[in-house]
Specification:
The chain is 0% helix and 53% strand. It has 260 residues and is mainly β. It is globular and about 50 Å long.
Length: 260
């Protein structure tokens, strides 16, 4: 299953099954939605492919699922897709994960002039809450961190551990910036700035002169987080993990830049 931007104009879906719509007869392609896409993430929600786009040009953040619903999408090729707005505030750097069949998204929005990290989950049945006006009523939203994000990177990573606990990594703009790991503990007593459901743990201090994370990825081995990231100040590929204390390692110095 593949999602991609076609001619900077359409969100497309492709499946390696002989059919129509693609250049190759070995694939089937469908137009999902006619908004410009800056990138997309595709996951399976049950047996249905679902896509969350990274909008370009100030478009809405949209969740699309091939569930036969035939609602919300603009100019789809088939009647199989349902589209829902997750954010109408021109968000960026979107991450998409599924936990026990429930889709969830972490994204960054600029609210009142400041970048904030937001966690959105699809609760369904019109029971959503906490999201701004213009967001589909099936989604609930909450802040993860509101203390200001690194304007040089504005990136994050997102995954669930083996217990279904959501985790994310991001870089802040305060005091020269820090790389931070956060988990959703619930209960309303979280330690993250503005994120009452989230606990934050600093991983490392970033360079004061150029606080930037180039790329990052988060995976779990059970409940132990493993983070791969690039420090664009030094162009290094780095690794961090923790059981009770963070361990950092420089994997490779990349003369021409690293990516992951």
């Amino acid at each position: 299953h593949i999602a991609f931007d076609f001619n900077n104009s359409y969100l497309m879906y492709a499946k390696k099954v002989a059919g129509s719509g693609c250049t190759s007869a070995s694939w089937t392609c469908e137009q999902v939605h006619n908004q410009e896409v800056g990138g997309s993430v595709i996951r399976m929600v049950g047996s249905n492919p679902a896509i969350v786009d990274k909008p370009a040009g100030g478009w809405n953040l949209v969740y699309a699922v091939r569930d036969g619903g035939n609602t919300g999408c603009t100019s789809p090729d088939t009647a199989n897709w349902t589209c829902e707005t997750i954010s109408a505030a021109a968000p960026y750097w979107t991450n998409f994960a599924v936990n026990s069949g429930t889709p969830a998204v972490i994204h960054i929005e600029t609210v009142s002039g400041s970048s904030k990290l937001i966690y959105a989950t699809r609760v369904g049945g019109g029971g959503g809450s906490g999201c701004p006006v213009g967001v589909d009523s099936d989604w609930s939203c909450e802040y993860v961190y509101t203390g200001g994000l690194d304007q040089n990177s504005n990136k994050s990573a997102f995954a669930y551990d083996s217990n279904g606990i959501a985790g994310t990594t991001f870089s802040t703009s305060s005091s020269g910036g820090e790389l931070v790991y956060a988990t959703r503990t619930g209960g309303g007593s979280g330690t993250c700035t503005g994120g009452t459901q989230w606990n934050c743990s600093p991983i490392m201090k970033l360079h004061v002169s150029e606080p930037a994370i180039g790329n990052m990825n988060l995976v779990y081995n059970g409940t132990a987080p493993h983070i791969i990231y690039t420090d664009t100040s030094d162009s290094d590929l780095l690794y961090a993990t923790s059981n009770t204390k963070w361990y950092n390692d420089n994997i490779e110095g990349c003369q021409n830049g690293c990516s992951n």
